[in-house]
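Hi V.,

You were right to ask for the full record rather than a summary. Here it is.
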Amino acid sequence: MSTLKWFIALVLAFGVAGVNAQDKKGGLSKEDTLHLKHLSEANRAEVEAGKVAAQKAANPEVKKYAEKMVAEHTKMLEEGDQLAQKKGVKPDQNVDGKHKKNLADLNRKSGADFDREYMEQMVQDHEGALKLVQNVAKDAKDADIKALAQKAEPHVKQHLEEARKLRTAVNKSGEKKK
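Predicted structure:
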């Protein structure tokens, strides 16, 4: 066998081995692996921010919203992490850098300032999360990941609507006191 033919055979063998290794890992594309990780990051960020707000919020409606975010995003996080485990993906157990900064910003605030900052973050985060789940639902190749995003979408839409209304109410109450 010539060197070139041997080299081609070797490349093909490793290519097939790589495909088989990917199949054993759940057969996920890099994009679907990233989809799972991004869904996990988004849910984890909502849970962590909600925990802070449940403790620090001055407005009872903000506190109630925060508790709802902890409960509902914990459930979504658990479902996503179970799917990730099934697919051989290990999501990061920490909040990403952007959300770490947001949590630090929240922790420096108190009272009505805290409520306004938290609700602003919730609107921004849920706008991003809605785009994320819509993109994953559209672009994911794996049917389970696609279904996970489709299941999350109506919840994220509802959270965004609630956050927008509550942000408006919190901002208006702050204007009255000035």
